[in-house]
C-alpha cells in the first residue's frame, strides 16, 4: 500500500471538530472494507503502513483497529496480522477468540454493571453447573455488560469466584477488569486452561427484563470454566447474549506438520 495519504483522510493530523484521529482512521478503513478494497479473509496493511499513510501514532492505529474489532469487521491473528472477517457490521458487539488473552477484549471494550452479589454454599445442584466442590463457599454475582457506545446490554452474566476472593467482584464495577484477570492477581496463579460450552436457551422473565428483550427470544449461552495449571477452578461464568446484539467469532485452521 502506498505511503501517501488517501484523499478521504487528508489532514488527519487536524481532524474536524468533534472527530478524533482514531475515528478518522477507523472510518476510512471501514469504508474501504465495505467497498471491497480489503476483501474478506485478506489482511489489512501493516501497522507501520497505516501509521505512514495517515500520519498518526501507533497507539491511534491500534485504537482504530480495536474499533473495527468491536464491530466484528476484523480480527487480529498472531503471525498473520489483522484479517478482514466481513464487509459490514452485523451486530452491536462481536467477540473473536483465538487465545486466552483475547477473552480480555470483551471486558475491556464494554462497561459493566453489578446487579447483585451474594455468598453461597455450593450444593450438589449448583456443583453440576459451577463445578466447585460441594460445601465450599463461593461468591455469586449477576452482572450486565453493554458496549461502550451502546445503551442496551449485550450480555447478562452469572459470575462465580471463591468467597475468599469476594473483593474481585467488589472491584469489578469500579475497574471493569475481567474477572479471570482479577482472580489471577488475587490468587497469584495464572489461568492456563479455559473450558467453554456454547448453546442456546430461553431467558427467564427476570433475565429478559434485565436484558431488555422478549422472554421468548432465544439467547446465546456461553459458559466458561477457568483453571490453573494444577486444575484448580479459579472462576466460572455463565453468560446470556441476545443474538441481535452480539456475535461470536472463532477461527479454526489446520496445524502445521512438524518437519521430518
Key descriptive features of the protein:
Arc Repressor Mutant, subunit A; alpha+beta; two-stranded antiparallel ribbon; 2 domains; 260 residues; disordered N terminus; 8 helices; Chorismate lyase
Give me a quick take on this structure:
28% of the residues lie in helices and 29% in strands.
Structure description:
The structure is a single chain. With 260 residues, the chain is an alpha+beta fold. It has helices at residues 21-34, 47-54, 58-70, 103-108, 124-130, 166-175, 179-187, 205-211, and strands at residues 74-77, 81-84, 93-97, 110-121, 137-147, 155-162, 193-201, 219-227, 233-241, 246-250. It contains eight helices and ten strands. The strands form three sheets. It has a six-stranded antiparallel sheet with strand order 4-5-6-9-8-7. A two-stranded antiparallel ribbon has the order 1-2. It has a two-stranded parallel ribbon with strand order 3-10.
On the 0 to 100 scale, the average pLDDT is 82
Low-confidence stretches: 1-18
Strand order of the largest sheet: 4-5-6-9-8-7
Q: Find the CATH topology of the largest domain.
A: Chorismate lyase
Q: In angstroms, what separates the terminal alpha carbons?
A: 38 Å
Which class of secondary structure composition applies to the elements?
A: alpha+beta
* DSSP strand count: 10
Order of helices and strands: HHHEEEHEHEEHHEHEEE
Query: How many structural domains can be distinguished in the coordinates?
Result: 2
What is the chains' assembly state? Answer: single chain
Q: Roughly what fraction of the amino acids lie in strands?
A: 25-35%
Which CATH-level-2 architecture of the largest domain?
3-Layer(aba) Sandwich
Amino acid at each position: 500500500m502506498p505511503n501517501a495519504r488517501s484523499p478521504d483522510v487528508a489532514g488527519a493530523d487536524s481532524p474536524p471538530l468533534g472527530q478524533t484521529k482514531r475515528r478518522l482512521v477507523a472510518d476510512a478503513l471501514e469504508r474501504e472494507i465495505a467497498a471491497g478494497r480489503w476483501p474478506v479473509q485478506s489482511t489489512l496493511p501493516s501497522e507501520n503502513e497505516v501509521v505512514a499513510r495517515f500520519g498518526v501514532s501507533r497507539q491511534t492505529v491500534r485504537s482504530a483497529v480495536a474499533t473495527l474489532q468491536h464491530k466484528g469487521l476484523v480480527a487480529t491473528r498472531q503471525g498473520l496480522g489483522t484479517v478482514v472477517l466481513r464487509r459490514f457490521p452485523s451486530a452491536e458487539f462481536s467477540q473473536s477468540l483465538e487465545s486466552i488473552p483475547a477473552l480480555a477484549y470483551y471486558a475491556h471494550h464494554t462497561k459493566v454493571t453489578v446487579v447483585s452479589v451474594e455468598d453461597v454454599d455450593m450444593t450438589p445442584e449448583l456443583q453440576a453447573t459451577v463445578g466447585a466442590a460441594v460445601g465450599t463457599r463461593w461468591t455469586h454475582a449477576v452482572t450486565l455488560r453493554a458496549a461502550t457506545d451502546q445503551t442496551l446490554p449485550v450480555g447478562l452474566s452469572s459470575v462465580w469466584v471463591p468467597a475468599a476472593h469476594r473483593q474481585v467482584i467488589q472491584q469489578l464495577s469500579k475497574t471493569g477488569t475481567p474477572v479471570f484477570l482479577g482472580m489471577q492477581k488475587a490468587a497469584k496463579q495464572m489461568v492456563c486452561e479455559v473450558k467453554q460450552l456454547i448453546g442456546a436457551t430461553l431467558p427467564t422473565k427476570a433475565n429478559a427484563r434485565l436484558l431488555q428483550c422478549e422472554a421468548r427470544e432465544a439467547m446465546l449461552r456461553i459458559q466458561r470454566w477457568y483453571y490453573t495449571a494444577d486444575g484448580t477452578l479459579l472462576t466460572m461464568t455463565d453468560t446470556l447474549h441476545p443474538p441481535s446484539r452480539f456475535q461470536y467469532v472463532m477461527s479454526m485452521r489446520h496445524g502445521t506438520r512438524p518437519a521430518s
